[in-house]
Write a structure and sequence with these properties.
Length: about 70
Amino acid sequence: MIVKVTRKRQITILKEVSDELGIEEGDLLSVRVEERKIILEKTGGLDELDGTLNPGRGISKLADRGTG
């Protein structure tokens, strides 16, 4: 399967893929690069992402300002 990148750097997840993985509108996907490959994974929600969006600070502290 091949998808095209838009001028805003967006891609469309094909229906067959989203159906197979249970990806629905509003779901969160984690994105990482491994050996020059883009890996997308469906996450269980914000709790699963705790610490990845702002390393060293939990979700409850995401809105906090400062460096600590």
